[in-house]
Amino acid sequence: MSESIGTREFAAKYNATQTTVTKWCKEGKIANANQDAKGSPWHIPNDAVPPASHRKKQTERITK
Predict the structure, then answer these.
(1) Which distant-in-sequence residues (6+ apart) come within 8 Å of 28 by Cβ?
(2) Rounded Cα–Cα distance for residues 59 and 45 (Å)
(3) Are 4 and 43 in contact (CB under 8 A)?
(4) How many independent structural domains does the chain possess?
(5) 10 Cβ partners below 8 Å, 6+ apart?
(6) pTM of the model
(7) pLDDT by residue for the chain (64 residues), tens digit each?
(8) pLDDT at 15
(9) pLDDT tens digits, residue range 42-55?
(10) What is the CA 18 to chain-centroid distance, rounded?
(11) Other CB atoms within 10 Å distance of the CB of residue 48
(12) Residue 8: which residues within 8 A CB-CB, separation 6 or more?
């Protein structure tokens, strides 16, 4: 199994809120994110990326 990070680290890495990252995980928008059991912390692969809609917003902010 590859290294993983939590929602807090993922949120900081991609300038999102921890709540949003948790929502993405629940909705299956972050590939291969999983939990050991319902209510336990999410495990997100180090190489995972946020949904395309978030990446597009980040790109728009940079180009303005």
Answers:
(1) none
(2) 22
(3) yes
(4) 1
(5) 16, 21, 30, 44, 48, 50
(6) 0.81
(7) 459 999 999 999 999 999 999 999 999 999 999 999 999 999 999 999 999 888 666 655 666 6
(8) 94
(9) 999 999 999 988 86
(10) 8
(11) 18
(12) 18
Q: What is the CB neighbour count within 10 angstroms for residue 49? A: 13
What is the span of the domain harbouring residue 17?
4-63
Two structure tokens written together for 10: 């993922």
Phi, psi of 43 (to 5 degrees): -115, 115
Retrieve residue 17's tokens: 């809120």
Rounded CA-CA distance 63/4 in Å is: 31
Segments in 1-64 forming alpha helices (H): 7-13, 18-26, 52-63
The token pair at 7 is 């929602």
